[in-house]
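Quick one: structure tokens for this chain, please?
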Amino acid sequence: MSGLKLFRTDITKGGVTEVTPRLAEVEADVQGLVEAHMETLLGVRFLASEYGTGPVHGGRIDSLGLDENGSPVIVEYKRGVDAGVINQGLFYLAWLMDHRAEFEHLVRDRLGVTAADQVLWSGPRLICIAGDFTRYDVHAVREHRRSIDLVRYRLFGSDLLGLETVASVSGGMQVGRWARHPAVARAAADLQGESMVELAGAVDEVLLGLGDGVNRVERKQYRAYQRLRNFACLCPPQRSKLLVYLKADPKNVDLIPGFTRDVSGLGHHGTGDLEVQLRTPKDVERAQDLFRASYAAA
């Protein structure tokens, strides 16, 4: 975003005017804006602001939230460049891991019992939002075994906000092949079930290969593929098909019966309003434009 130029076009006069990027006047302005729209901007449900960590620890977490997959999220803000933002966030993340019951109690109070029971402690996240980061910051996050996102912000004019992911590192969670369907485990002759497991591996490879900074989060009901927010959710293989849910607007897609379906308003595992049904490697190939569009939107 540091090299991005934004122009306002005037169709009637045929000219363009550059919208100059700027930083916020104070850090609190960025924090207030993000907290007010956290789910839209980050895919994170807001829980608390300036959360005190007690007299012994002696800190205040800028923002606490819960992401689409149930992972706890700490968000730290800096108006400009600050070499301490990552270490500060990791300091709070360590506190959070030692105070799981307190966090779950907060989730229960704000989002209900169901959300509290589904908190995913295997993948807590730290999101740092700042005016900019140094190359040392980017290197530092790659040396940690935590899920960390570095997000650069810019304000344009009086009503535009830009967010750019500078670096995104997963917590290094290892995800193996999906367990075969019990019938497949008992009978190797069930080639159809085996082919779905292989197809899931192919989809996994395609989604991870869409670009840098794709994190994979494992839940019992689905695998989420994330760029700050989820852009795809892959459900465990069924006997004859795979279901992938994408963050694409079904209204902008030519829906094909048996291949794509609008599931907005319908209950399903994972996130996304567009369901893609995959039965063969050829289906994976023809779905790649949809995968890319969802990745770009995230």
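The first helix runs from residue 27 to 36.
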